Amino acid sequence: MASIAAEEKLEKLRSAVASLDHISENEKSGFIDLVIRYLSGGADKIDWSKIETPTGEVLLPYASLAPPPEGPSLKSVMSLNNKYGCNVPLILMNSFNTHEDTQKILEKYSKANIEIHTFNQSKYPRLGVEDFLPLPCEGKTGKDGWYPPGHGDMFRSLLDTGKLGLFLSQVRKEYVFISNSDNLGGVVDIKILNHLLHSQNEYCMEVTPKTLADVKGGTLISFEGRLQLLEVAQVPDENVNEFKSIERFKIFNTNNLWVNLKAIKRLVEADALKMEIIPNPKEVDGVQVLQLETAVAAGIRFFDNTIGINVPRSRFLPVKATSDLLLVQSDLYAVDDGFVIRSEARISPSNPLVELGPEFKKVANFLDRFKSIPSIVELDRLKIHGDVWFGADVVLKGKVSITAKPGVKLEIPDGAVLEDKEINGP
């Protein structure tokens, strides 16, 4: 009876999706396939007993890679094109939410020496939890009724939009380098590319040593003889603490990925990329909805001759919050020809841990509170809470904690040097 009820629910969903006129037939079929896999257990937990640590043959230290044949180090896509006389395009994947904003920004670069491509990933309807029907079928036809199904949709969207065919038709375009747009350290690396070309790897995941700040990040494992991404959502509840251990799992996925274009085409056309499903529950106007998503790094287990490369932390520099912005705007980093370079004066291999209060959450408020960004090359940890303002040329060292009393403005004067200091004031 249960299977009959599930089939009836699915048929009702198919009929409802077929009536939607806001998306393509490819998007409709892709969405239905995702739902079928979800109902069939596509979001189940992993068999913990089968997890193994990748061997040195498939997880390589960056330092062990051979240097590129000749030429200077690559610092950005634009400098690569200028210095090597080649044409490496920049490709931006958007969703229906970000497309227009991206186009406005790209107008500034219309005369730049770089070929820029954009494409939109798929657009799927949110599912009502109670009736298991698409939200747009219930009157939610605006943006709230839809969602982008995670970056795992990238491979299919590259094919569906014609971009994959375009790149394959061009001479000597063999690999795509994928990186999150907020990762300032995610740039093309000739040393890695040289290794992939010589070893003919179809897929490479860049990983980096895990710190206590990264315990929830996905990691690279061996599972039944193949490399595989392991995310916390796949971990059985009783093993979550072990997953977060930096002793048991020493690396995490940076989401810097290198993938062979021909291999992408082969697997997408064969409908072979069945990445693990990430259920993402939401609430829209009081209605409980479900988004089914996938991650691009989870695709590694479907490709042949895959490897991981353990890269320096400098290749993972995401800016997701103002605490990250403080790091990259400080003297800890400098920007040279589009490449973010870490200061050699920093002795510790890890970055300072920065915790900012809600007063610093918005970028405009964050910038207003600093006459200039403090020097933090020798900083280990910083906590700021309350109405705190910084003068110019402030230096922070060691562990610093600054808390302003409720309703009171606390100003750090120009030129102040705070080392291993705790301030509760004024």
Describe the overall structure.
- Residues 70-75 have low confidence and may be disordered.
- Helices cover 23% and strands 27% of the residues.
- The chain is built from eleven helices and 24 strands.
- The protein has helices at residues 2-18, 25-39, 77-84, 99-106, 154-160, 163-169, 190-199, 240-243, 261-269, 322-329, 363-368; strands at residues 51-52, 59-61, 90-94, 116-120, 124-125, 127-128, 146-147, 175-178, 203-209, 219-223, 226-230, 251-260, 278-284, 287-293, 306-310, 333-336, 339-342, 353-356, 379-385, 388-390, 395-404, 410-412, 417-419, 422-425.
- It has two domains: 2-314, Alpha-Beta Complex (Spore Coat Polysaccharide Biosynthesis Protein SpsA, Chain A), CATH 3.90.550.10; 322-425, 3 Solenoid (UDP N-Acetylglucosamine Acyltransferase, domain 1).
- The protein has 426 residues and is of the alpha/beta class.
- It has a five-stranded mixed beta sheet with strand order 2-15-9-12-8. Strands 18, 19, 21, 23 and 24 form a five-stranded parallel beta sheet that branches.
- The longest helix has 17 residues, at 2-18.
- Helix 4 links the parallel strand 3 and strand 4 (116-120).
- The radius of gyration is 24 Å and the shape is globular.
